[in-house]
Amino acid sequence: MAKRTVEQLSEQLLDKPLAALSPEEKGVLEAIVTRQIVADDAADLADEQASFGERLSDRVAAVGGSWAFIITFVLVLFGWMLLNSEILTKFNAAFDPYPFIFLNLMLSTLAAIQAPIIMMSQNRASNKDRIAASHDYEVNLRAEIDIIRLHEKIDQLMLDKVSKLEADLDEIKTALRSG
Hints:
Layout: H1 6-14, H2 23-34, H3 42-48, H4 52-64, H5 67-90, H6 101-178
Helix pairs in contact: 2-6, 3-6, 4-6
């Protein structure tokens, strides 16, 4: 089968003119014509494009959403409360006695800072998902087009075999008539 152009593939395989193709479809057809592979890791592509702030927000979200952070945080809170209610009160040195107003201020500040950072990480995860979905579409389209092309090749081989069998049959009939 001769090498076809993007325009020919567009018409033959997708039944669309080149101008009606989406950018993904054009990219897949161009990859077929140039024999390029379209299967890249979408997560790697998204990570390559990430800014320092995006990578930092991912780290903060990963740490803030871990059991290690939760357990450590609970231990620090209980330690703070124990220190300021039992130990330092005996020496009249408690810097944040019950009702722990300074601790509440620090927790509120932490929550106010951590929440938008985690939201930034979630937005980035959504962007990664969109990139992955787009990439999956391209790979699936490429697979479908390759299957169509394989069917065309098999159909052509079958037609060639049938033609050869018909020619052989004609030779046999001619040989039987003359013989």
